[in-house]
Amino acid sequence: MNPHFFLFSGPVHAERLSWIGECLKFYFVKIHPENLLHHAPSREKIFEFMLTGEALYSLHDPAMVRIWEILIGLPSVRITCDRQELALRGISIEGLKMKNPEQLNDHNQLGVSGRSSFWNDVVKNARQHEQPVPSTIGYLLNVSPYMHRSSLSAVRCLNAALESHASVELYAYLDGIHCGHTNQNPTEFENVGSGLEQVSEKAAKRGLSCQMIACARCAAARGYSTWDDGQRLVISACTIRPMRIRNLAEIVSRFAKNHIILGENIASIQIKQGGQESSFPLQEESRAPPLTVLITCPPYDSENAFGGLSFAIACAAQGILTRVIFIEDGVYVVTGSHAPEEDDRIFNLQEVIDAVAGSRNLQFFVFTPSLHQRGIAKDTKMNAVLNIGIPELGQLLFLPPKESFASHQRVIFF
After folding, report:
1. Quick check: 114 pLDDT over 80?
2. Between the CA of residue 37 and those of 2, 28, 391, what are the distances in Å?
3. Looking at domain 132-270, what is its CATH homologous superfamily?
4. Where in the chain is the domain with CATH 3.40.1260.10?
């Protein structure tokens, strides 16, 4: 069996690592207890955590290290680190590595170019997740360049995918659309716009497909524009050549395909056909990978909660089984009674949830341990949002919904 994997480049805090750890315990105790009976360090890995960027600090913080030691003490759990980013940040993991040499890997794979790269390891994992071997690897980009070093991850990941002879796709959403702005000219940083143009050129030379799509709503909000000359859609001069501004539905149509999609904070969970099924069923047969959207940010101060909710609704509308889970600070979306001013041009997220409640392929949940940790409760009027704990979250993550024929489930952190 190919491993389930989590890819983190943003901050990983104790709350997130703790609920992930509890879900892994649920997996081993309730779903596959046979793995506990035959534990050996050399066994094939079942879970792989791939860490780069700010996520690497969690391996240095003493409180977080204690949680990591519990996780890698479970059967066949391994951590792969970005060695280049460890060196950049001056982070040492030798203490943790000496205790767990088989479970901690910081020697990244060599690519065709002869250089080692963490993204070669990521792409290798991605390519193992589909049968037959996938022809395409996608990347969902939600953050802007230069303010976020993790935006470079998209360029490096797509280059590694091309080296492995996979076609590539970039989906620019929220602030991620800024990576496609023309005439970027940073003096201190690697040019992300030029990097994406080089990805497109490299793909063309190798006879591989390369698509770069930016969400039209997010682009229009940030001053990007398109116009129709009466014959075809013309992209404005403010985007690099490979980037196309399109309706969100066009991005979502790519999520209906079975290829692996990576991103800043994501997971890919293998679905074993013919195994135990979740008690949360599909409403119809589907070959599109199910999608779990974890909304982890509070509403209104940033676009993350609204963006995650909008993305989930769009996916469900195209027939993708979509579950939205409010967790960590995302639980504030469903607490209290939200009352924006009448002239305040902002969506009331609670009203959005009520409006789409009962839609086909769309389910809402709130993680009660996150509520309890903050001393708050779900608003009693939010009947469309079901309360869940660790057992239910474990089912949603690791048990395939009935009538799903996909090879894996996608998990995206917003």
Report:
1. no
2. 20, 10, 21
3. DsrEFH-like (3.40.1260.10)
4. 132-270, 272-414
